[in-house]
Design goal:
The chain is mainly beta. The radius of gyration is 13 Å and the shape is globular. The strands form two sheets. Strands 2, 4, 5, 6, 9, 10 and 11 form a seven-stranded mixed beta sheet that branches. The protein has a four-stranded antiparallel beta sheet with strand order 1-3-8-7, with no helix packed on it. It is built from no helices and eleven strands. Strand 4 and strand 5 form a beta hairpin.
């Protein structure tokens, strides 16, 4: 079982920055988890934002956020972060943290992830 708790969402003006955090409580070794961030707008499907695969040393990003968002993790603190810079109104969504038990994961598909946080709202005003 993996419990995920996100924090750091809020209201920011376009061009601003936010850093989301996701703390994991798990009986599994955190560094072996593939960690992902997704987002969802009302009435739309959940979409991939970024993922971190520690075992493979890889990170993955959606085209819409490349160059603006950075995923990182502190395995000693069982925490994954999403640094979001140059935010745009279209980044407004509920952001979810997810964990994939696949050691070599990095999928863009929500169904591949095994555990989810409760979500945190990010609102970017124009």
């Amino acid at each position: 079982q993996v419990q995920l708790v996100e924090s750091g969402g809020g209201l920011v003006q376009a061009g601003g920055s936010l850093r989301l955090s996701c703390a994991a409580a798990s009986g599994r070794t955190f560094r072996r988890l593939t960690m992902g961030w997704f987002r969802q707008e009302p009435g739309k499907e959940r979409e991939f934002v970024a993922a971190s695969n520690w075992s493979a040393g890889r990170t993955y990003y959606a085209d819409a956020v490349k160059g603006r968002f950075t995923i990182s993790r502190d395995n000693a603190k069982n925490t994954v972060y999403l640094q979001m810079n140059s935010l745009k109104p279209e980044d407004t969504a509920v952001y979810y943290c997810a964990a994939d038990l696949n050691v070599y994961g990095g999928s863009v598909f929500p169904k591949e992830y095994d555990y989810w946080g409760q979500g945190t709202q990010v609102t970017v005003s124009s």
